[in-house]
UniProtKB/TrEMBL annotation:
Keyword list, A-Z: Transferase
Stated name of the protein: Phytoene/squalene synthetase
InterPro entries named among the record's database cross-references: Isoprenoid_synthase_dom_sf, Squ/phyt_synthse, Squalene/phytoene_synthase_CS, Trans_IPPS_bact-type, Trans_IPPS_HH
Gene Ontology MF terms: geranylgeranyl diphosphate synthase activity; squalene synthase [NAD(P)H] activity
SUPFAM superfamilies (UniProt xref): Terpenoid synthases
GO terms under biological process: carotenoid biosynthetic process
Organism, as annotated: Lentimicrobium saccharophilum
Length: 278
């Protein structure tokens, strides 16, 4: 029965999300229930592609990613795949009309992680667009539920929010990316000379993205607003902590938000949401 296979596919995407990211899976719970399965489907797809380029050492990553790309488009065209993650992803793509361009840009950015790239401003923006902004747009397609006018209106702030989240990830993981993977995303920056002044310039840029992103959150459908706002609150708290941290420490360790602080953020944010104070 196809229905049984589809159910297994949905459970596979949810299991992938819950296993790989406790914070993201917690955030999905704050969406209206009708958004849970579609967002799990997007996360599962994105996660697997990311794992190919970041984790599968000792394998032919380029070949695996190319096969993943081919299988993705075949699944979308045929509306089925024996890979449960891709089967669930094709379901959400076809149901909500997610554009092929968004998927292309995402997979292109994953391919960039396979190459030893020296990022200039153009490549940096291309990577941010593909790795973060278009993922936000895939989710926005789900949240807008076919309302194309609302999608177009919310598209710019959604992209800015995705950009802010990704740049904070880059700052948080600066040490691990540089030492472990030999990567450095921020253009024109010599990490051997990374100092507080350089860090401040990056933070000023992120602050502008955050401001535009918050305006977009306030215009989201209510069933999606609180979940996205929780992600905003978490990343903003992390951003503030990074701002208070010296550049020398950023280059030595990963900055984290303790679980007890996350729970406090959840309670205060929920009260704001219930009182329409977002």
């Amino acid at each position: 029965m196809k229905e049984l296979f589809d159910m297994i596919s949905k459970k596979s995407s949810k299991l992938t999300t819950v296993t790989y990211s406790t914070s993201f899976s917690l955030g999905i719970r704050f969406f209206s229930r009708r958004f849970h399965d579609p967002i799990y489907a997007i996360y599962g797809f994105v996660r697997f592609a990311d794992e190919i380029v970041d984790s599968f050492h000792g394998y032919d990553k380029a070949r695996l990613l190319e096969r993943f790309r081919t299988d993705t488009y075949l699944a979308i065209e045929e509306k089925i795949s024996l890979n449960p993650i891709l089967n669930n992803f094709q379901w959400v793509v076809n149901k909500y009309g997610i554009e092929k361009e968004l998927i292309d840009l995402f997979l292109d950015s994953m391919e960039m992680d396979l190459k030893d790239i020296s990022y200039d401003q153009e490549k940096f923006e291309k990577y941010i667009l593909g790795s973060a902004e278009v993922v936000g747009l895939m989710c926005l397609r789900v949240f807008c539920e076919g309302d194309d006018e609302k999608y177009k209106k919310l598209k710019p702030p959604a992209m800015r929010l995705g950009s802010a989240f990704q740049k904070i990830n880059f700052l948080r993981d600066l040490h691990a990316d540089f030492e472990g993977l030999g990567r450095s995303y921020f253009p024109g920056i010599d990490l051997s000379k990374f100092d507080d002044e350089t860090k401040q310039k990056i933070e000023d840029d992120i602050a502008l993205d955050f401001a535009d992103g918050l305006e977009g959150i306030r215009m989201l459908p209510r069933g999606a607003r609180f979940g996205v706002y929780m992600a905003y609150v978490y990343f903003h708290k992390l951003f503030l902590k990074i701002k208070r941290t010296r550049s020398s420490r950023i280059m030595k360790e990963r900055i984290r938000i303790p679980n007890r602080t996350k729970y406090k953020l959840l309670v205060t944010s929920y009260l704001k949401h219930q009182l329409n104070l977002l």
